[in-house]
Amino acid sequence: MREPGRLSIYLCGPTVYGPPHLGHGRATLVYDILRRYLEWSGIEVRLVSNITDIDDKIIDRAEREGREWSDITTKCENIWFRAMEGIDVLRPTDVPHATEWVDEMVDMISTLESSGAAYATSDGVYLSVESVEGYGLLAHQSLDEMMAGGGDREVLGASEKRHPADFALWKFAKPGEPAWESPWGAGRPGWHSECVVMSLGLLGDGFDLHCGGQDLRFPHHENERAQAVALGREFARHWMHNGFVVDAEGEKMSKSLGNVSNLLDLINVSNLLDLIEVYDPRAYRMVLLQSHYRSPVGISADGLEAAGRSLAGLDSFISRTASLEDVDADAATLDAFRVAMDDDLDTPKAMALLFDTMRQANTALDEGDDATAARLVSAVKVICGAVGLRLVEPEDVPVEVLAQAAALDAARSAKDYEAADAIRAELQNAGWQVETTRDGTTVRR
Question: Fewest CB atoms within 10 A around its CB: which of 145, 309, 363, 431?
Fold first, then answer.
């Protein structure tokens, strides 16, 4: 860490021209889990995640629909944060907007041009990648292997570029497009320039960690790093890239391929205050916790429903153990959790530990060892909190009803199913809904 006990993170945020899809959800959840774990570990985290509110795709949609570009960005940003709230993602410490940093971007581009690292064409200003030592280092490619332009964004002025991999720092505006003044003419910054200015401007040189999806490694992150190198500034010390969300055939999901699922399909948002759950919104977090962040992951109805059943078992466990004394968490369990998470954020191992701890606690309860069970239950709660897995608190159930539920479980453990059925019928006749899983019995009004 640049500063002991403090970690600075920059996460590439959304381009707000449409609703967030499952890939966006994976990126935000992965780094939300990382942030929560670090903070639980006692580290102060400053997470900066930007909003790209000027971009070719925003302009294209505005022209296509005959709307103001700012109307699109405002509404899509609101939808973005409604979705993030719905899946329990904490707001970043800072949320800079690209349009608020245009002056600083112009200054940076001017510096690059003055040093000979950038040059103007009839379409804009470009960075000369041949002037950047080690270009391609992050992408693990040589310069000759580099592609032209900026990912799936339109390449302007390609015929005037000095090298096919040179990329736009400033794009001249066409008539009717949004534009800002600059020494080269009215236009807007290139996508790659936006993040490098905002990350260095807010976190400073040599910030600790730069995050994003695997698809951003090249060209976006490579081109960010190139600008910092050309400026003679230290950029991110470490990089972290999460794997793709893939479809049933294992192909990356993207809007350009037409196989993207809308993140809001997971949480049917009718308005800002009312979330009507299609799936338990925690289910997506659970699916990702059970997958390593660098591995591709498929998201399906079956997978989400399976995660929902795991969560129902967790909720039942918390309800069953609600009457136990609140004690310190089992130290050995927490040590094992730290070992898993510190090993390249091995959340699948951490989740296996979580559910194994639940089983151990249920066994201790069945054997009448409430002291051991209480320590294990506390460990389950701590682990859930450390990875942002929200627990559903049990309803206000009378102690005598909880005792009947515990007696039902004891009867089942003893294979006295007649007694268990009698207790179940008594509870149901009293107006309680009774649910029994392998993790125990819960009762609700």
Answer: 431
